[in-house]
Design goal:
The complex is a heterodimer. By secondary structure, chain A is mainly α. Chain A is 77% helix and 0% strand. Chain B is of the alpha/beta class. Helices cover 39% and strands 26% of the residues of chain B. Chain B is built from nine helices and ten strands. Classes of the chains: A mainly alpha, B alpha/beta.
């Protein structure tokens, strides 16, 4: 079959999987609510903290704005990760993987579908929180302009890498390992420099923080907010690390997919 | 007549546990073949290998003229399967589930195909209901509809009439035989229902503890084991040490 025909078939299968999650969302209002609920709660809580800080001292106004921006951007990574892993878990909950992988669906097509869904879910969740911040606190993250696109994409890609890694591990070890979806990302939060520069970390922990793409994004965010410059160096380092981690995440997922075929996991997945 | 399935010296082991050992068989194109065996005999393992869901430890598998282990994506669009042990998404309606699998299998004129299947399998009134809310028998029929969505040349069926009442089961058997005739399709059926096997299968493969211990027509096997029917053959095989 010519290349064009193969691409068309592959995109049709990706579309089928996106549609599958679309149907799931359409038929479940708690899932739709969950998409916007947690980002909204985060922004409401941190918004009040920021207001409080601003009331304490005028010089803290800049810090309070950085908090709000950090909360929204952190959520991009968190939602990006959950958008891959939790959506993949849906297939395990419904014990549907046997049907899926006995069909012509390739693993990489499933991964592409997961990334598309994650992007859409993140856009809806964080977009709603951003609008809420605008309404409640008159803070617009969109004022960052084009750099926001750079921050958003880098954090989303890091979330994807983690999501693929977690999905692979859950495929291998079963749904008993699903708490990794939450635990993993919170484990790296303290060393990602979300609310403070990584220079405050203990000396021995800084090299670890420097290996995390998000730490460069949050550094870039503070440079933009406090000094009005876009740190290209931080952007390129973050992008390069993200490229590497996305490759590793995908490689782990595909390797575990093969292990699952050796061990017969597609027919026996559960607790 | 060419073979739709050709398996040679198939082996599958999980660590020290041997699930299949030296299994070889062929199924001719257009044939209905049954796979018999007690629990743990290796039926599901065999089906999973034929679907590409499980990699064998050794052996060769050719399906619809292709080496399955090397080119499974060439044959998967021409196959399908149904099993009561693999579910469909519970929250999706029957129509949504069928629409998704139709797209995955590259089916043309999806709406028309779903309507036809719904009529043939008596699912028309269930199309807008969530899969999770169906009875076990209804789920079996939906699973069959999914298995037939792409009009497969090779259909692998694990207990295709599980949970169906005798009338529905009889109609489904008739439907499957009609489908086989109309499409010259090959059917491999794993079942514990010996009457079903005697009615639809032209050939029977008997597995015990991962080994193929008998192959032939139901009559030939009944004669070979010196029993009165397949049920007795099955009990003989299952209970022998």
């Amino acid at each position: 079959m010519p290349m064009r025909g193969r691409c068309l078939e592959a995109s049709n299968r990706v579309l089928a999987m996106v549609l599958r999650y679309g149907y799931l969302m359409r038929g479940s209002w708690p899932r739709i609510l969950e998409l916007v609920y947690w980002p909204a709660m985060q922004i409401i809580m941190w918004g009040f903290i920021s207001e409080f800080l601003r009331e304490q001292h005028a010089s803290l106004a800049g810090v309070s704005i950085a908090f709000l921006a950090a909360v929204l951007l952190w959520d991009v990574m968190f939602r990006g990760q959950l958008g891959v892993s939790v959506v993949f878990f849906e297939e395990l909950y419904s014990r549907n993987l046997g049907h899926l992988f006995a069909s012509p669906l390739r693993p990489y097509e499933l991964v592409i579908a997961l990334l598309i869904i994650s992007f859409l879910r993140t856009l809806i969740g964080v977009g709603s929180a951003a609008l809420l911040a605008l309404w409640l606190y008159h803070y617009s993250i969109f004022r960052m302009g084009l750099p926001l696109v750079a921050f958003f994409s880098n954090l989303l890609i890091m979330g994807w890498s983690m999501g693929l890694l977690v999905s692979g591990l859950v495929l291998r070890y079963g749904l008993g390992a699903e708490s990794l979806a939450w635990a993993g990302i919170f484990a790296i939060a303290p060393i990602s420099g979300i609310y403070y520069p990584i220079s405050v970390l203990p000396f021995w922990l800084r090299p670890v923080a420097k290996a995390i793409p998000a730490s460069y994004v949050f550094h870039g965010m503070r440079m933009l907010l406090f000094h009005h410059v876009f740190d290209w160096r931080a952007f390129w380092i973050s992008s390069a690390l993200n490229g590497l981690y996305l490759l590793i995440g995908a490689a782990v997922f595909f390797a575990i997919f093969r292990v699952a075929r050796v061990r017969g996991l597609f027919l026996n997945l559960g607790e | 007549m060419t073979d739709a399935v050709e398996v040679r010296n198939l082996e599958k082991h999980y660590g020290q546990t041997m699930a299949l050992s030296g299994v070889s068989f062929a199924i001719a194109e257009g044939q209905v073949c049954a796979l018999l065996g007690g629990n743990g005999a290796g039926k599901t393992t065999t089906l999973a290998i034929l679907l590409g869901l499980l990699l064998p430890s050794a052996g060769a598998v050719r399906v619809l003229g292709e080496d399955l282990l090397a080119h499974r994506y060439r044959v998967l669009p021409r196959m399908n399967f149904s099993s009561p042990y693999v579910d469909l998404p519970h929250r999706l309606t029957i129509a949504e589930n069928l629409r998704i699998y139709a797209r995955l299998y590259g089916v043309q004129r999806i709406a028309r195909r779903i309507t036809a299947l719904a009529e043939e399998l008596d699912l028309a009134e269930l199309l807008d209901r969530a899969y999770g809310g169906l009875s076990a028998g209804q789920k079996t029929r939906v699973s069959l509809a999914k298995a037939l969505i792409n009009q497969p040349d090779l259909l692998l069926l694990d207990e295709p009439t599980a949970s169906l009442d005798p009338d529905s089961a009889d109609r489904i058997r008739g439907y499957l035989l009609g489908y086989r005739r109309a499409h010259t399709a090959t059917l491999l059926v794993a079942s514990h229902n010996m009457q079903e096997v005697e009615r639809i299968a032209e050939r029977v493969l008997i597995l015990r503890r991962g080994q193929l211990i008998g192959a032939g027509t139901p009559q030939a096997l009944i004669a070979q084991f010196r029993r009165n029917n397949l049920e007795e053959v099955f009990l003989d095989v299952a209970r022998s040490p």
